[in-house]
Amino acid sequence: MPSSLSKTRKQIAKKRNGEVNALHQKSRDSQRLHKAGVRDLRLQKLAEARGKREQPIVDRVAFFQEKLKEMDDKAVDVATAQEFVEEFIGQYDEEYDSLKKARRPGRPGSAREDLLKMKIAALRTEFKNGFVIPDIIKEENVKLLAEWEGSWARLTTLPWIKVSSEGNVRQADFPNKGIN
Asked: CA–CA distance from 40 to each of 33, 116, 123 (Å)?
């Protein structure tokens, strides 16, 4: 992905007739290589952090896309959308229960168990206030979701809604700040 190191290495090799290995430690060329390497590492860390922040949104959209495929890509009503949200939240229950049963009585929960507990609680709170999902209530939006191939860039073109546990539905913006 980052390529400034390889470009810098290529430029230095061209200047030195193909020899990059024989550089003095404090030379300008070695400093250029070091700076390029540090820059590539920094860009790689930023990309990993961005991917980690974006992954819950991609997973959520993929879940709802799969649910609509099971229903032959038809628009659903609000009650069905609420069922889908409940199922999305419930996907972590089985793992949480197995971790809870594996723990000896009187022992504190594992880190993974605590993480799942917090995640489930956050999802339930979000559902109470308004769970952000792609718009699966209108037919034209369902077609857009069915055409989505998994890329982050196409997510911004999808219309989004918030579905609450009481059945309220309202328009929402793209969740670019991340979810949970």
From this structure: 11, 34, 36
